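Worked example 3 (structure in, sequence out).
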């Protein structure tokens, strides 16, 4: 009858509750959510996806407006090569987001930042370098490298004073990706402090092919990674992610040799999560048949989402002058190509529909792509239905403690919400 709380994650001198709340981009895993994980003795993630937007919302800065103003003349131009990020502002926004979060940290846990390599930002190397270094400058406890192989990412920060003291980890979906990462980064004489192994049931982008993701399973990949690390005598903590819904699911992995688990979907319906309330309610109501893995993301990675996400087929005009996070080094994005193709096919039509790709920057910013893990349809079993048919939102503390203390796959419901009676008159 083991519970997650019977285990601890050891990262250097830190002894932690082995629960990591995964990064959820564009401020779905908010500072508030990450701070709760840290207060409770685990690890929380913020994300640096679209950090200018996040900073504008949190701190009333004007980064996005200013960038749009600067490049307004280019809005109708399909060539986006000129739309470059100001690296000074990128550093400033990252330091603000990270710095303020770290100042608010209480408790024994840690706060990491999720950095996706696929956010190529029209200058992949230069922008990633600034993102990683600014997060370290601002005191982040650790960086999780995600959405990419990150073969050169250690090189971008190897001369940073915090390169050896900050915790650095990588997300992989296969033992091969891990081997490649270790080989390419060997010259820096520094192993990753942890490896997150993300399986095919996770939310967000998947590190598998669109046709074969369903043939993989997390347990097999975790076992392969553990066996490889044992063979190589590498003591790197392994953290499985994707579809771990109960404390018992987590204990299964901890018993197999995992050092902690990374979870996300169960926290999407907490008060601290950045999704708007109507989207949280949509997640609660989800059924298995509402979920799909599709190729709509311009990154080229498959992505899991609810089929009725408003961003699907929307045909939004590309907003790269304001955002532009997915532009490659030549100023290209698969969505721009799909959009231009539809415009050319439908001359004179004011609003086209684009079925095969989505403007991920615009729709993630607006919370209109409802990405979720495969277990989203089970969320309704984690809360109470209120008299008006909606579901009671949870607190991050409640969900965290449920993972930490539950036994036998049980899921604790929240204490019933006491609503103020309507005032008279
Ligand atoms: C709404 C949502 C957004 C996500 N966004 C990101 C992201 O921006 N970067 C990333 O590396 N992983 C992202 N993920 C994956 C999670 O960090 C996590 O690894 C995974 O979802 C864990 O599986 P679970 O949701 O089944 O618990 C996201 C997951 C969800 C549910």
């Amino acid at each position: 009858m083991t519970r997650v709380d019977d285990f601890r994650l050891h990262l250097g001198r830190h002894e932690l509750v082995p629960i990591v709340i995964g990064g959820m981009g564009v401020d779905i895993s908010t500072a508030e959510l990450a701070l709760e994980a840290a207060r409770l003795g685990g690890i929380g993630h913020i994300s640096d996806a679209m950090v200018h937007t996040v900073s504008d919302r949190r701190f009333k800065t004007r980064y996005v407006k200013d960038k749009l103003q600067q490049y307004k003349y280019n809005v109708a131009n399909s060539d986006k090569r000129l739309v470059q990020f100001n690296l000074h502002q990128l550093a400033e926004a990252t330091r603000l987001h990270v710095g303020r979060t770290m100042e608010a940290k209480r408790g024994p846990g840690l706060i990491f930042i999720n950095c996706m390599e696929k956010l190529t930002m029209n200058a992949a190397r230069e922008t990633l370098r600034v993102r990683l270094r600014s997060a370290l400058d601002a005191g982040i406890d650790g960086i999780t490298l995600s959405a990419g192989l990150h073969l050169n990412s250690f090189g971008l920060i190897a001369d940073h004073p915090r390169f050896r003291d900050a915790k650095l980890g990588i997300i992989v979906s296969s033992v091969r990706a891990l081997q490649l990462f270790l080989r390419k980064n060997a010259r820096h004489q520094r192993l990753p402090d942890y490896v997150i192994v993300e399986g095919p049931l996770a939310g967000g982008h998947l590190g598998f092919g669109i046709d074969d993701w369903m043939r993989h399973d997390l347990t097999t990949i975790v076992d392969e990674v553990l066996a490889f690390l044992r063979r190589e005598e590498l003591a790197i903590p392994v953290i499985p992610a994707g579809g771990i819904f109960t404390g018992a699911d987590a204990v299964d992995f901890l018993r197999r040799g995992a050092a902690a688990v990374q979870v996300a979907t169960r926290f999407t319906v907490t008060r601290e999560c950045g999704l708007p309330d109507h989207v949280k309610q949509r997640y609660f109501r989800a059924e298995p048949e509402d979920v799909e893995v599709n190729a709509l993301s311009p990154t080229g990675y498959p992505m899991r989402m609810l089929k009725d996400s408003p961003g699907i087929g929307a045909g939004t005009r590309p907003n790269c002058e304001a955002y532009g996070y997915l532009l490659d080094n030549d100023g290209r994005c698969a969505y721009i190509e799909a959009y231009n193709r539809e415009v050319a096919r439908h001359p004179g039509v004011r609003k086209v529909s684009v079925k095969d790709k989505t403007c991920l920057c615009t729709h993630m910013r607006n919370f209109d792509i409802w990405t979720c893990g495969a277990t989203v349809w089970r969320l309704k079993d984690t809360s109470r239905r209120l008299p008006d048919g909606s579901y009671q939102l949870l607190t991050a503390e409640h969900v965290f403690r449920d993972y930490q203390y539950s036994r036998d796959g049980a899921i604790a419901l929240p204490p019933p919400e006491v609503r103020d009676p309507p005032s008279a008159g």
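Notes: The chain has 13 helices and 13 strands. The chain has a mean pLDDT of 97.
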